[in-house]
């Protein structure tokens, strides 16, 4: 296993490091960002939060725009930030649309051609990446949190609901809650799963809740009410499913806020507090 | 005077707003970013900090990557972020190099053809932009601070030294301190001033200090010692000039830190405290 350091940067007494490795799940080289707090640099085993970004973002976006590192450093928590899709797979048309292919892996394992060989983001972010980063750094496999935004919020919900044994804490900003009912999700699921409607259900957070899947702990969900994509995100569907099945979901709405990182940076502090309580409490 | 709102985003109970206006100094449309803290939205007159970014950045970069808004909001301070050059002036070759023309205005008023008609960033950031933003928002013209990074650090130093009556507080991250002695500066000054060596002296912060120019208050300067551009920034030259002339310069060096926004976000809090002391103390 060869891991190349692309760059590293001191930040809040710790280090932000960008890495590249050959991913076995994705079958291509994959880049990621990691934050190592001061404690981890001196060998202490620390909790870790994985962050899944939204459409068009990459492995740097959430780290540089969300203000997360300030608070991860304060609490001595590592951060892992994967890319939002495989890149340069050679699949025809992968760079054509912003909402399919490159930058739009939707954190699922594709089963339909031509995507199925490389577009295995669910297994990558849920299995390969935690194992890789925990082999490289003193991150505690029993104290993993996951945060996601938009498409990445959907990815974080899928991870938390389908694999609650992998994650201890989960929080999301403006997640895609019911992908099988909206244009983005329909387009992606149609491409990645083809006619297999069973798969559509397995990757729809609202349907997962309806079908009895349980998160490892209370999900914190922040949603701006001036979000330009609100109709496509459908937080109400997720709330209804959680109420119906008695699952733990704490939703906070914010009157004036929209979809981007200005919103995320305004509330990231509360999210880190939420994870700290679960990971260090 | 027509000012167009390009977008606005709630952030920390205030608003980040992106604007475009026809600049009389630049002779083209110019974009900028503004942060209005909650207090300003309810009409209270607040202090304001202008931020000048470095090469290749634009009017959004410093706002989204530096974490400045968190602390500006905490202290009820406005922020104004101009672009780093005029854009789309039609000057031949303006987009050719990263360090000349677009994204590289160096915050000077060019005097040589073909740049002199549009490349008037000194007058733009020092006169037109404060007047414009103070006519639009309740920003206090008697309580202006200025922060700059790299090329923008040079711009902030030029403003503070040549026009101390305009600014009350100044701080810089990894500024270009002696442009007339380094490749970036020589290339830019040669293009923007041609053979006029008098101009070279007027826009070199170290020479300005040597020639008796005085800042309005103590300059705070942070510099990382792993900065990949350290040899081109020459903070030692500025320090020597300040010592020689007894000018107020507080320099802090940081062993592990490099040139980018990971460095800036690690220390922005201290910079805002520095400005708060001078603007609100």
Detailed description of the structure:
Chains A, B: This is S-formylglutathione hydrolase. Chains A, B: It comes from Swingsia samuiensis. Chain A has one domain: Alpha/Beta hydrolase fold, catalytic domain (Rossmann fold). Chain A has helices spanning 38-41, 61-65, 68-75, 121-136, 151-162, 183-193, 197-202, 205-210, 230-233, 235-245, 261-280, and strands spanning 3-11, 14-22, 29-36, 46-52, 78-82, 139-149, 169-173, 219-224, 249-254. Chain A is α/β, with parallel strands linked by helices and 281 residues long. In chain A, helix 3 runs parallel beside helix 11 (261-280). Chain A is 37% helix and 23% strand. Chain A is globular and about 50 Å long. The A-B interface holds A 9-13, 15-16, 64-65, 67, 69-70, 224, 226, 254, 256-258, 260-263, 265-266 and B 9-13, 15-16, 64-65, 67, 69-70, 224, 226, 254, 256-258, 260-263, 265-266.
Binned, the helix content of chain A reads 25-40%
The most extensive contact between chains is:
A-B, 24 and 24 residues
Radius of gyration of chain A: 17 Å
Measured between the Cα atoms of the first and last residue of chain A, the distance is 35 Å
CATH class label of chain A: Alpha Beta
Shape of chain A: globular
Q: Mean of the pLDDT scores of chain A?
A: 97
Low-confidence stretches of chain A: none
Name of the CATH superfamily of chain A: Alpha/Beta hydrolase fold, catalytic domain
The major beta sheet of chain A can be summarized as: 9 strands, mixed
Element pattern of chain A in H and E: EEEHEHHEHEHEHHHEHHEH
Oligomeric state of the chains present here: homodimer
Helix count of chain A equals: 11
Beta-strand content of chain A:
15-25%
Provide the CATH architecture of chain A: 3-Layer(aba) Sandwich
The number of strands of chain A is 9
Main sheet of chain A: which strands, in order across? 1-2-3-5-4-6-7-8-9
Structural class by helix and strand composition of chain A? alpha/beta
CATH topology of chain A: Rossmann fold
Number of domains of chain A: 1
Pfam families (chains A, B): Esterase
Family (chains A, B): Belongs to the esterase D family.
Catalytic activity (chains A, B): S-formylglutathione + H2O = formate + glutathione + H(+)
GO molecular function (chains A, B): carboxylic ester hydrolase activity; S-formylglutathione hydrolase activity
């Amino acid at each position: 296993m060869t891991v190349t350091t692309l760059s590293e940067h001191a930040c809040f007494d710790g280090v932000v490091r960008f890495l590249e490795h050959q991913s076995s799940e994705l079958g291509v080289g994959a880049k990621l960002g990691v934050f190592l707090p001061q404690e981890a640099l001196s060998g202490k085993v620390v909790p870790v939060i994985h962050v899944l970004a939204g459409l068009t973002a990459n492995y740097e976006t959430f780290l540089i725009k969300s203000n997360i590192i300030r608070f991860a450093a304060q609490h001595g928590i590592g951060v892992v930030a994967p890319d939002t899709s495989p890149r340069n797979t050679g699949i025809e048309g992968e760079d054509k649309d912003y909402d399919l292919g490159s930058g739009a892996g939707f954190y699922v394992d594709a089963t339909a051609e031509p995507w199925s060989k490389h577009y295995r983001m669910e297994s990558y972010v849920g299995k390969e990446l935690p194992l890789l980063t925990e082999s490289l750094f003193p991150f505690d496999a029993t104290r993993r949190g996951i945060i996601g935004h938009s498409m990445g919020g959907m990815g974080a919900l899928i991870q938390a609901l389908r694999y609650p044994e992998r994650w201890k804490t989960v929080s999301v900003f403006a997640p895609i809650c019911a992908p099988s009912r909206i244009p983005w999700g329909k387009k992606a699921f149609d491409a990645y799963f083809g006619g297999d409607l069973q798969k559509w259900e397995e990757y729809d957070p609202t349907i997962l809740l309806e079908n009895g899947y349980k998160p490892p702990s209370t999900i914190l969900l922040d949603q701006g009410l001036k979000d330009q994509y609100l109709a496509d995100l459908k937080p109400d569907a997720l709330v209804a499913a959680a109420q119906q099945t008695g699952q733990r979901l704490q939703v906070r709405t914010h009157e004036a806020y929209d979809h981007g990182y200005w919103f995320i940076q305004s509330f990231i502090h509360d999210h880190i507090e939420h994870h700290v309580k679960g990971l260090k409490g």
